[in-house]
Amino acid sequence: MRIPENHQWDPLQTTIINLIACCLIALAGCSRSERADNAASPALSPAAPAQPPVDACALLTAEEMASIQGQPYQEAKPSVQAYDGFTVSQCYFALPTPSDSVVLNLTQATAANAPALRQQWDEMFRGARSRTEKGKQGESSPPRNIPGLGEQAYWKGSAVGGALHVLFGQTHFRISVGGPGDTDAKIDKSEALANFILKRLQSQQ
């Protein structure tokens, strides 16, 4: 519709037209600003997925178990729990002779929690190195240092058994070997199994 040149605008019409013009100018300004912000801000890339915890049952094969215990395991029974930023993966390697079975516990930390894991390790062995502790099942001797295994390794034993503890990177693990034999024999078997475990942990880094 063409408006005559001599048309007289009343005050209400003038106010409405001015409001419409202001809105159009404001919308145009917002559109330009949004396009500028989008051009200046790079797109955010998705965060890298967290590395899944290592499966303790995948760290030993039936053949490796047979080479140490004289018989392959029949079943590997896993369990996993998380606490205080750590993941604890346990595997019970069931052998045909139940008393010969092997238990592996693997404690893992993320890179951010690695200092806390090492502090936990130090606390486990700092006090134990300096005294003989009495456990529920009999007298235990101070931990025995096992050189050349992982970053640090200790055997903790008692009158009824024992276990080998190994620190490596952002993990430490505990391996308990069943079956006949004295403490030295158990340590030798545990060391052999620990070397298989360390080889796989190293390959996964």
Explain the layout of strands and helices.
Layout (H helix, E strand, L loop, with lengths): L10 H30 L21 H8 L5 E9 L2 E9 L7 E8 L4 H16 L4 E2 L2 E2 L4 E2 L6 E7 L2 E8 L2 E7 L5 H21 L2
Antiparallel strand pairs: 1-2, 2-3, 3-9, 4-5, 6-7, 7-8, 8-9
Structure description:
The chain is an alpha+beta fold and 205 residues long. The chain has one domain: PknH-like extracellular domain (Protein Transport Mog1p, Chain A, 3-Layer(aba) Sandwich), CATH 3.40.1000. It has 4 helices and 9 strands; from the N terminus they run H-H-E-E-E-H-E-E-E-E-E-E-H. The protein has helices spanning 11-40, 62-69, 114-129, 183-203; strands spanning 75-83, 86-94, 102-109, 134-135, 138-139, 144-145, 152-158, 161-168, 171-177. A 7-stranded antiparallel β-sheet has the order 1-2-3-9-8-7-6, sandwiched between helices. Strand 4 (134-135) and strand 5 (138-139) form a beta hairpin. Helix 2 (62-69) packs antiparallel against helix 4. The protein is globular, with a radius of gyration of 34 Å. It starts with 10 loop residues before the first helix and ends with a helix. 20% of the residues are buried. The model is unreliable at 38-49 and 131-139 (pLDDT under 50).
Name its key features.
alpha+beta, 205 residues, seven-stranded antiparallel β-sheet, single chain, Protein Transport Mog1p, Chain A
